[in-house]
Amino acid sequence: MATVWERVSIDSSVLRDLPSAPLPGKSLVVLDPVARLASDLFPCEDGYTSERALLDSVLATMDADDLWIADRHMCTLGFLLTIAQRQAYFIIRQHQTMPWSALEELRPLGRIETGKVFEQTVRIDDPDNQPLVMRRVVVRLDQPTREGDPEIAIFTNLPPHVDGPTIARLYRDRSKVEHLFQVVTQIFRCELKTLAMPRALFSFSMALVVLCRIYLPLPPERLNPGKKTTVLLDKKRGFVYL
């Protein structure tokens, strides 16, 4: 399985109080959820740019058979199509602006811990190639999200033997990424009040390095950057959080 990416905004408490204060930058971070290590970092000094502007850099690191799990901010037509074209896999939450067509009605698949799971086959059109047929997994939640959403829809191109409830649970476990950032922020104090870009990015990056160094006592097979962690599919595949 591969490691998934998550967006990180780097902020400065002092600058927040100034009306004309610049944003100190942002980063996309790749997390290996088994080793609990950040395996890659894509910093950007322009705090006003969209996370999507960094996705080309992410794609340059992608290997076949990787599984990328990401939030809806990463749900773009180009990103999903390119992952599939490179024979990799994705579990990405649907963004409301993403165009897609249903090929069948939703089918119930039972429950997970947070709600009822449904699935359907859908298609997205590629103007230059064949359309991508994939699955859309929907979790109708027992309790709404913090944003008030009553359900979560997830796109995936994983093979059918990886069932909808498993896909829903893998997406739910993206909270591991947020926990990593909480540790970096609160314990390693990466958001220094006097820092703005690009020094804020440097401070955040060094905090990630220190965190990874602390985890070095883990077994070598969990720390080898050239070997993806096998969890879901077979010996060649790993997953990552974006």
Helical percent range? 10-25%
User: In this structure, how is the largest beta sheet organized?
Assistant: 8 strands, mixed
Please give the count of helices. Answer: 6
Task: Give the uncertain stretches in residue-range form.
Answer: 2-12, 220-238
- Estimate what percentage of residues fall within beta strands: 25-35%
**Terminal-residue CA separation:** 14 Å
What is the count of distinct domains?
2
Number of strands: 11
Order of helices and strands: EHEEHEHEEEEEEHHHE
C-alpha-based Rg, rounded:
19 Å
Oligomer: single chain
- State mean pLDDT (0 to 100 scale): 75
Q: What's the overall geometry?
A: globular
Structural category:
alpha+beta
Describe this structure in words.
The protein has 242 residues and is α+β, with helices and mostly antiparallel strands. It folds into two domains: 1-71 and 175-242, no CATH class; 94-173, no CATH class. 23% of the residues lie in helices and 29% in strands. It is built from six helices and eleven strands. It has helices spanning 13-16, 55-59, 77-85, 164-172, 175-186, 199-214, and strands at residues 4-9, 26-32, 37-44, 66-70, 89-93, 101-102, 107-112, 115-124, 132-141, 151-156, 238-241. The strands form two sheets. Strands 4, 5, 6, 7, 8, 9, 10 and 11 form an eight-stranded mixed beta sheet that branches. It has a three-stranded antiparallel beta sheet with strand order 1-2-3, covered by helices on one side. α3 (77-85) links the parallel β4 (66-70) and β5. It starts with a strand and ends with a strand. The model is unreliable at 2-12 and 220-238 (pLDDT under 50).
